[in-house]
């Protein structure tokens, strides 16, 4: 198998390896939400999102998309879609209003839309983050509704210009990586954390937010692992959840009988 050159290649590799088994499972213990995506389902969301970004916002190599999103399964799809277009991801928390005005599109959770609207950003997509992918409710602003927009786009994505490994891929705080650098960093981090092919990783969402998308999304893809992403974790039920999901390793939680990522077994 060829060495992945970009994040899009990492997703394609996962799709070839095991299209139907769970790749990303998302829990929110505060709401009781559970969403499970196979590689095929995630790739479908990525394709639809990439088509939306390319066709409606002309996003492509050299383009810039700013994200104001929490760690979430829909955020995984958005990140991979931006990278599939060959564009770079910016975090709005590290960008000032003047720089945000230069981006092609801003994708934000519904509760983070008001301050962005005050900046006069026109190309704004709002995400409800509803577990069933439904649209925003109780919203009267000018942002376009991601859920309504994305559903009309195709399930297969073909970039107008293929992603180029040398192009910028991520600007996060003081970190800047090319698309190729993201794939390389993912592979290196997977090795450092000792993530094995076939691992089922339980990752705390807060730790994931602090570590960044290379750690919670790309490194598992690079290693051939799947992810159980847990938000607002109820620690008392983590052992049961780990057993139910057949978790083999954890990041952000100590669970008896489960190895911690980055530590020897």
Automatic annotation (TrEMBL):
InterPro entries: ANL_N_sf, Rv3268. This is TIGR03089 family protein. It comes from the Bacteria.
């Amino acid at each position: 198998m060829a060495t992945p050159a970009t994040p899009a290649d990492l997703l394609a590799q996962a799709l070839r390896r095991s299209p139907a088994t769970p790749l990303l499972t998302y829990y929110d213990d505060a709401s009781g939400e559970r969403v499970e995506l196979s590689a095929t389902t995630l790739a479908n969301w990525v394709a639809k999102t990439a088509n939306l970004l390319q066709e409606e916002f002309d996003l492509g190599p050299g383009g810039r998309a700013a994200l104001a999103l929490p760690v979430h399964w829909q955020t995984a799809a958005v990140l991979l879609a931006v990278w599939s277009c060959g564009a770079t991801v910016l975090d709005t928390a590290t960008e000032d209003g003047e720089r945000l005005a230069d981006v092609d599109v801003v994708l934000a959770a519904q509760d983070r839309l008001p301050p962005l609207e005050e900046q006069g950003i026109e190309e704004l997509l709002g995400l409800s983050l509803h577990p069933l992918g439904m649209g925003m409710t109780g919203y009267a602003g000018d942002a376009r509704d991601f859920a309504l927009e994305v559903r009309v786009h195709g399930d297969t994505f073909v970039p107008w210009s293929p992603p180029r490994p040398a192009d910028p891929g991520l600007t996060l705080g003081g970190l800047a990586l090319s698309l190729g650098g993201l794939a390389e960093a993912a592979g290196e981090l997977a090795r450092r954390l000792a993530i094995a092919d076939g691992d089922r990783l339980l990752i705390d969402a807060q730790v994931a937010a602090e570590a960044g998308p290379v750690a919670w999304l790309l490194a598992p893809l690079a290693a051939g692992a799947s992810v159980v992403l847990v938000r607002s974790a109820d620690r008392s039920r983590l052992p049961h959840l780990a057993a139910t999901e057949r978790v083999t390793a954890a990041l952000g939680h100590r669970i008896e009988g489960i190895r911690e990522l980055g530590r020897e077994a």
